[in-house]
Amino acid sequence: MLIKKADDIKSGEITERKHYLNRRNFLRAAALVGTAPATGLLYRQFAIPETESARGEKIATVQTPASEVIPPLNEKLTSYEDITHYNNFYEFSTNKTAVASKAQGFVTRPWTVSVEGLVQKPKIYDLDELLKIAPAEERVYRMRCVEGWSMVIPWVGFSLAKVLKEVEPLGQAQYVAFETLADAERMPLDNVLDWPYVEGLRLDEAMHPLTILAHGLYGETLPPQNGAPLRLVVPWKYGFKGIKSIIKIRLAEVQPPSTWNLAAPSEYGFYSNVNPNVNHPRWSQARERRIGEFGMRDTLMFNGYADQVAHLYAGMDLRKYF
Predict the structure, then answer these.
(1) Which pLDDT tens digit goes with each residue over 119-178?
(2) Which of 59, 114, 143, 276 has its CA at a distance of 20 to 30 angstroms from the CA of residue 129?
(3) Phi, then psi, of 166 in degrees rounded to 5
(4) Which domain holds residue 307?
């Protein structure tokens, strides 16, 4: 539990020190153990489970159930500064380092998410109601961007499957489509893509325990530049599949459109699984640059989550279904 500081300490100083301690605690935990599973356990032990953000908001988290098989990572977390100031969010800017400043003041309350389509119980959820469906969990995931850079991010969120089970998908539902807010009064919406941004998953991908709806990171409420108030995280796929600021989730029988696939179908496939053996037409995907590190590292198949997700694509030609 976070110990409340004296009233005369500036909130910005509290936030800065908290981030510093969180990162030190993670490194301390990693140094104490020799196995990856132990690292995952100690991260939850040393990390502050209830954290105060710069706005005084808190997200209480629970330990992920062992049955969900979340692979622990014995890797250094990307800094909070880098995660929140190097962003792909084209609704605000195509300049990754400009998104944070342009998204300042983006209002995320009130907010509703419609869950509809081929379901027994369609519903428009108020954000607070949606967040009560499942306790918030800490999920430390590798994230790989199609441009060749990567991060390790401590997300706060819950399994998308929990929401889908609430609305009871019909038997003919095979896909899940997502839509981002497109509001020209709140977002610049430069004419670089067709808005709103849309994405999709196969239903079995959406129901997989690694797939989450994130509403926080580093124990804090998700900042606007990272997709507030609610975004999709699918860690074995390239980052553009992680649609941000979601307002609609729709279950469908046919494959839904995907913004980047529509914009450049030869470059961005519907599946978009991280695959070092399938290059982007304009660059190799075999290596990546971890933000905050020097040099390059090898890209892992399915971003290192092959043991958990490879069975979803058994028998598929991953060069064709890229």
Answers:
(1) 999 999 999 999 999 999 999 999 999 999 999 999 999 999 999 999 999 999 999 999
(2) 143
(3) -60, -40
(4) 11-313
Mean pLDDT of 186-193: 95
**Residue 153 and residue 198: Cα distance in Å, rounded?**
23
15 is written with which tokens?
């936030």
Are the beta carbons of 82 and 149 closer than 8 angstroms? no
SS3 track for 29-67: HHHHCCCHHHHHHHHHHHCCCEEECCCCCEEEEECCCHH
- Polymer length of the chain: 322
Contact 302, 236 (CB under 8 A): yes
pLDDT of residue 36: 33
4 found inside a domain: no
Cα–Cα distance measured from residue 283 to residue 293, given in angstroms and rounded to the nearest whole number: 21
Helix axes 11-32 and 36-46, enclosed angle (nearest 10): 150
> For the whole prediction, is pTM greater than 0.70?
yes
Percentage, residues of the chain above pLDDT 90: 77
Q: Please indicate, yes or no, if residue 44 is contained in any of the structural domains.
A: yes
Number of structural domains (the chain) is 1
Distance between CA atoms of 210 and 32, rounded to whole angstroms? 26
R_g of the chain, CA atoms, integer Å: 19
Residue 5 lies in a domain: no
Indicate whether 145 belongs to any domain.
yes
- 281 token code pair: 């037409």
- CA nearest 139: which of 271, 245, 237, 235? 235
Supply the CATH number for residue 191's domain: 3.90.420.10
3-state helix, strand, coil in the chain (%, to 5): 25, 25, 50
Output the six-digit token pair for 76.
Answer: 């250094």
Cis status, amide bond into 110, omega within 30 of 0: yes
Give CA–CA dist 314/207, Å, rounded: 17
**What are 133-148's pLDDT values in tens digits?**
999 999 999 999 999 9
